[in-house]
Design brief:
The structure holds 2 protein chains of 2 kinds.
Chain A (H helix, E strand, L loop, with lengths): L1 E6 L8 H11 L5 E6 L2 E4 L3 H6 L7 E7 L3 H15 L1
Antiparallel strand pairs in A: 1-4, 2-3, 2-4
Helix pairs in contact in A: 1-3
Chain B lengths: L1 E4 L1 E4 L2 E8 L15 H30 L1 H14 L2 H12 L5 H17 L4 H22 L12 E5 L4 H6 L5 E6 L7 H9 L3 E3 L13 E5 L4 E4 L3 H24 L13 E6 L5 H6 L5 E5 L1 H5 L7 H14 L4 E5 L27 H6 L1 H14 L4 E6 L5 H21 L8 E6 L2 H5 L1 H4 L5 E4 L1 H9 L17 H16 L3 E4 L10 H7 L3 E4 L4 H10 L2 H13 L5
Parallel strand pairs in B: 3-4, 4-5, 5-6, 9-10, 9-16, 10-11, 11-12, 12-13, 13-14, 14-15, 15-16
Antiparallel strand pairs in B: 1-8, 2-6, 3-7, 7-8
Helix pairs in contact in B: 1-2, 1-5, 2-5, 3-4, 4-5, 8-20, 11-13, 13-14, 19-21
Classes of the chains: A alpha+beta, B alpha/beta.
């Protein structure tokens, strides 16, 4: 299991557009990706639940990656966050 | 003739038959089913078909409006196969023995409510997306046909409001313009219309009656007018406007993005004159470099009492932010003379053009001026603001006005309000006095802008409102042009720029003269920007300058 923390810098937060791109990205990997903010967490493939968390700029989220390709997936998903969110 | 007033959200004039959008109505009936597996399979098939349709729509949107537009449908696709969404439908069918239509409808309500209850207005608006996707699936389940336009000729499309997927599915070659009952300036219909470059009018409410269908309608997006069965003269005016617009569009295609530069590389800034924040759209769509004259009077003319600082601030802020960092020159209050406002209670004057007007009123009634200056400086934090004072005749007036600016800045600083330190201050040169002492005035300000309408009237002693003066009122008069040259020379000696914001700026027969005497900026109405750019790009200043200056300064009349 791999875990990293990330603070959202995108001024719109995880809105539909970035959430959509994120789900597309995560679908590439076999691992299960969970995004948590405070005491709430969601499977990152669930677009509407993810949007429903209302993650905004400056929110810090914890991303957990678990599965066969977790090493590469975690590294690449973290890079994705830095570039897009 | 029937005239209806709405709100124009995309400019242009269009004429065509009125057509009401046909929407496929699918009513959801609730039934209890026993074959849950078969019902689930029905849902899965409809979901797959919806995914295919959305994929096609995404591609269509990508071609028509780019990746950003396509993403909307890709998001819809993800919603359609969202795991929680699917799970909820599955449990309604398999555990609740509900038919697929009702299961989708219930789930849509549930998710739409979740979005609607979020505290973020953007997220609240996403509930429309969930409903849009769900009604697509329901339509497929019911076998209902998609709505559209069933007309052999292009139409003006009227609808209550259009969902995003509806706007994309429309056959664009059949649409000349939009009219909607509801909607907002940022609705999908408005955005689509602007992307397509066709007019759209929203918010006409229940004024569009079914009996108007098929009748000729003309819509004007610049003012929100909808006219059904126009009378001949109205029709003619609007058709001319349409023709102008067609020409402008052709010009735009050719000239957009090109510099306002002569053949020998002399550049001229071409800005716009506007009278209301709503005009910014025309400024940007005509590819102007900035706003050279924003007449602040509209704020005062549209009120029954003095506009408050906050009302003014909001209007200035809107223009500055919409112009995205391009320069915006806002002229302080210029009333009096031909622009009278009741609540100012100005005494009636025998000769108002030479009376208490513009900066004179502001200096005599500082409370009015200070309110405006505070609003302007507060708005300066949102863009590139320049402030311009009208009707200057003496250096002391400028100094006094600048002192008021300093006072306002000090107040705002003490209150901790933010404002830009980079606000230019300029004056209008519209009196012969100001032109003659422009060497002294140039030391006080950052720029000059010549108001040629008043400058002509005062120089030639010709009332511009008096139509009988005809041949005596000649803005091409050597006296006016020589004054402009003096102003240019004095400005440049002092390292400041000089522009023209009067009607004369757009007079293409004078563009060579303006370039020759060294005018740096021409501020004209938005529709004059591109013809002017075309003219400038055809001129070789080096070739004409000597002859023009020689003629202008010659002691012999040709």
């Amino acid at each position: 299991m791999k875990t990293f923390e990330y603070t959202i810098t995108d001024p719109v937060g995880i809105h539909a557009r970035p959430a959509g791109i994120l789900v597309k990205e995560i679908k590439k990997y076999a691992s299960t990706v969970t995004i948590s903010k405070g005491d709430k967490s969601v499977n990152a493939l669930k677009l509407m639940a993810l949007m429903g968390m209302g993650i905004k700029q400056n929110d810090t989220i914890t991303v957990t990656v678990e599965g066969a390709d977790e090493d590469t997936a975690a590294a690449e998903i973290e890079a994705f966050f830095k570039n897009n969110l | 003739m029937i005239s209806i007033q709405g709100k124009g959200v995309s400019n242009g004039v269009a004429l065509g038959p009125l057509y009401f959008y046909q929407r496929a109505k699918s009513t959801v009936t609730r039934t209890t089913i026993t074959d849950t597996e078969g019902e689930w399979a029905r849902f899965k098939a409809a979901q797959t078909k919806a995914m295919d349709q959305l994929g096609e729509l995404a591609e269509k949107a990508r071609k028509e409006a780019g990746d950003e537009a396509a993403l909307l449908f890709e998001t819809h696709q993800m919603m359609a196969e969202d795991l929680d969404y699917e799970e909820s439908i599955q449990s309604a069918i398999c555990d609740g023995h509900l038919n697929a239509e009702a299961a989708v409808s219930d789930t849509a309500d549930q998710f739409a409510e979740m979005f609607a209850s979020m505290d973020d207005p953007y997220m609240q608006a996403r509930s429309a997306d969930v409903r849009d996707v769900s009604s697509r699936i329901i339509s497929i389940l019911c076998g209902a046909a998609q709505g559209g336009i069933d007309s052999p000729v292009p139409v003006i499309l009227a609808a209550d409001d259009l969902a995003p997927s509806e706007t994309v599915q429309l056959d664009k070659s059949k649409i000349l313009g939009f009219i909607t009952e509801g909607g907002s300036g940022s609705s999908h219909t408005a955005i689509l219309a602007r992307t397509m470059g066709i007019p759209a009018i929203i918010g006409v409410g229940n004024q569009m009656k079914a009996e108007y269908a098929g009748r000729e309608v003309i819509i004007d997006g610049s003012n929100g007018n909808v006219i059904i069965d126009a009378e001949d003269d109205v029709r003619k005016v609007l058709l001319n406007k349409m023709e102008d617009q067609r020409k402008a569009r052709e010009l735009l295609e050719r000239l957009k993005g090109l510099p306002n530069e002569t053949r020998d590389g002399v550049s001229m800034r071409v800005f716009c004159n506007i009278g209301s924040p709503d005009d910014v759209h025309a400024v940007l769509s005509n590819d102007a470099g900035g706003i050279g004259l924003f007449r602040s009077e509209f704020l005062y003319l549209n009120c029954d009492d003095y506009p408050t600082e906050d009302q003014q601030f909001e209007a200035y802020k809107r223009v500055l932010s919409d112009m995205e960092g391009r320069e915006v020159v806002i002229r302080t209050l210029d009333i009096g003379a031909d622009k009278q406002i009741g609540y100012f209670n100005l005494p009636v004057e025998e000769n108002p053009a030479m009376g208490n007007r513009a900066l004179r009123i502001c200096l005599n009634r500082p409370e009015i001026f200070l309110t405006q200056l505070r609003a302007l400086y507060r708005a300066s934090a949102f863009g590139k603001l320049s402030i311009m004072f009208p009707m200057v005749t003496s250096v002391w007036e400028v100094r006094e006005a600048k002192k008021m600016c300093e006072r306002v800045k000090k107040e705002l600083r003490e209150e901790g309000q933010s404002f830009s330190d980079d606000v230019s201050i300029g004056i209008m040169i519209e009196t012969p006095a100001a032109a003659v002492i422009s060497d002294r005035l140039a030391k006080e300000v950052d720029f000059f802008s010549c108001g040629t309408n008043d400058l002509t009237q005062y120089t030639l002693a010709c009332d511009r409102q008096n139509a009988d003066l005809g041949r005596f009122f000649n803005p091409h008069h050597t006296a006016v042009l020589r004054l402009l040259k003096t102003v240019c020379d004095n400005a440049h000696k002092n390292g400041i720029w000089v522009g023209i914001c009067g009607e004369l700026g757009a007079d293409l027969t004078l563009t060579e003269t303006f370039l020759s005497i060294g005018i740096d900026e021409l501020s004209v109405s938005p529709r004059a920007v591109l013809p002017l750019r075309q003219k400038i790009r055809d001129i070789n200043v080096a070739k004409v300058r000597d002859k023009i200056l020689k003629t202008l300064m010659s002691d012999e009349q040709e």
